[in-house]
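BUG: 3D viewer hangs when loading the predicted structure for this chain

Environment: internal workstation, default settings.
Expected: structure renders.
Actual: progress bar stalls at 90%.

Input used:
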Amino acid sequence: MVHATIFDSLKQKNLNIYERGLLLESVEFIDAPVYYKDIYNPHKESKQIYEIYLFENENLGNQIDTLCYLGFNKHAQVIYKEQ
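Structure tokens produced before the viewer hung:
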């Protein structure tokens, strides 16, 4: 899962999911995407940090449905890879 830290309220609401994942990497963008530079965007001065998490099915238990549901949220990207 890729999570934009600018939307940490998503993380706070789903902390039980994030605690089951492994944080692989945090990437800070020095130059934010164009839509973040919009003068009307309240996040234009915020750091653009993306966290990449790895989840194993066996570690999710009954939370797997919640993780899949997060994939429909525009602030997180969930990619499922079957092994």
